Amino acid sequence: MEFTSSHLAVLVISVLSYVLYKRWKDPLRKIPGPKGLPLLGNTFSIKPEQMHVQLYDIAKKYGAVTKISLFNTPIVILNSTEACLEALIKKGTDFQGRPPLPRMWIFNPKSLAAAPFEHPDYSSLHRVAVTGLKSYGSGVAELERIMETTVAETIDLLQGKDGQPVDTHELSNGYIGCVMASILFGERYSYDDPICKSIHEMNDRLIQAIDPYSSGAILDIFPFLINFPFLFKYVHENIAKSQDMLNGFIMARINEAKASFETDQKRGCLDYFVEAHRNGVNGTGHKFDDDCIKGLVIDFIAGGMETSLSSISQTFLDLLHDQQLQKRLQAELDSQFEPTQTITMKDKNKLPLLSAYVLENLRYMNATPFLIPHFTLKDTEVAGYQIPANTRVLINAYYIAHNPDIYPEPFEIKPERFLDEDGKVVEAGHPSKHNLLTFGAGRRICPGELLAKSRIFLLLANILHKFDLQPVGELPDRDVRKYKLGILLSPPHVTARFVRRQ
Ligand code: HEM
């Protein structure tokens, strides 16, 4: 049969009708959001480094549920606490998937943070991570001892500097690295220990490889492109180097822990992972293999270091800007402790202003402004909108944390938001806490939340008790709207003098 112009017309009309029908049937069509170009969507109007500011403006304009699309891939964004909690808590597992993260999956196939919720290893990874952090985690004497020793070392280091300029980013990085290595491996490490340096290097490389706002992010939209290593070469190089380190010094640590394991003598979180490897995960019959152990070690390093670094760096920048606040926090410390005393986690209740400041800082900073992307596991709905299965969903914690209807003057730092009339830290149901989604909510809430908060609290308490923070030269802006969004939102680096208080 000959293909005539009428056949062509019928074909074109059929294809067009199909496309229009699909669009008309698409439930996401009803979700408001900025108009995009055909096929490209909003790809070229969204600037990755400023995405937190852009999605803030979009939320303000379009309301609780909005939508953008990148290369024709729709992304639903939830901008109200009600909508977020409906998705994260009320809707059970509907929203608990993760979209394809091929860069992370080839590096760390058994990552808790990147694993789709329905992945066969997910619940074991989750259970073992939480057990490790709980048994060994916040509130437990061993962890406190480690953090206190590392804080003491930090204080010694600052005393040695004798008021000379210190890069606060490097200082915080060193502290966080030592605490993380100690928590995992159960030994005390000093700032210049090779293992801490290797952990930092591996983490840096990994971050460069998986940064969701770099050019390599296109691999998450078109996962098949990961099979062409000549594209986005830097991604493959960084993954390969991090993998070498993972299979080198991390695997050596894992093997040592396996060889010297004693059931009643857990030294660090790694021993809990090794226990799961030896004995299986309670009642699941799941085989917790070497990839699971490596997966959790990497999750703790990648999930716990950069996030805390960004939050601690922000407190230094903030306190350098706000000398008044610094003095108020010091007055609270002076009213409770002798100058030579070391502050421990047991003293937390004596320091409500400092505790409130830690929360306020986490609100202001929101290091992961949209959490880790979620993904719908089935056709579902939120805030009255239909959301089909396999849709990417962002939780706009940054917008909620800076919504003036919830937090008046949201770009000011005011610890009082988290204090009641009696000067005590507000309870869980208080609006300031209820709307704080910095660590997420529901099943995929950050398991390291308590550890992260304790680390920030202890460091700040002891530094502010012993030192005045003074700026060196002109300070960079303390305005989260001007910070760049990389894998996380991070403040600019700042140098300070830590001058011993009289
Ligand atoms: C200030 C510090 C921290 C912040 C702001 C933070 C924030 C977050 C956020 C927003 C999520 C994603 C929640 C979601 O997608 O719904 C998350 C997940 C996670 N975090 Fe943290 N985190 C911090 C510290 C830590 C620490 C210290 C650890 C480990 C020791 C850790 C380990 C993890 C892990 C393993 C996940 C994945 C959980 C899952 O997908 O089920 N984080 N964190």
Write up this protein.
This protein has about 500 residues and is an alpha+beta fold. The chain has a single domain, classed as Cytochrome p450, CATH 1.10.630.10. It has 17 helices and 11 strands. The strands form 4 sheets. Strands 1-2-7-4 form a 4-stranded mixed β-sheet. Strand 5 and strand 6 form a beta hairpin. Helix 8 packs antiparallel against helix 10, helix 8 crosses helix 12 and helix 10 crosses helix 12. The longest helix has about 30 residues. The chain is globular and about 95 Å long. The structure holds protoporphyrin IX containing FE. Protoporphyrin IX containing FE binds next to helix 5, helix 12 and helix 17.
Would you summarize the structure shown here?
The chain is of the alpha+beta class and 502 residues long. The protein has 17 helices and 11 strands.
Helix segment count? 17
What structural category arises from helix and sheet content? alpha+beta
Order of helices and strands: HHEEHHHHEHHHHHHHHEEEEHHHEEEE
CATH superfamily: Cytochrome P450
Strand order of the largest sheet: 1-2-7-4
Q: What kind of oligomer do you see?
A: single chain
- Anisotropy-based shape: globular
Bound heterogens, unique: protoporphyrin IX containing FE
Backbone CA Rg: 24 Å
**Largest sheet data:** 4 strands, mixed
- Share of helix among residues? 40-55%
Top-tier CATH class: Mainly Alpha
Classify the fold: give the CATH topology: Cytochrome p450
Tally of strands: 11
Low-confidence stretches: none
Task: Quote the beta fraction.
Answer: 5-15%
Quote the distance from N terminus to C terminus.
97 Å
Corresponding CATH architecture:
Orthogonal Bundle
**Average pLDDT, all residues:** 89
Number of separate structural domains: 1
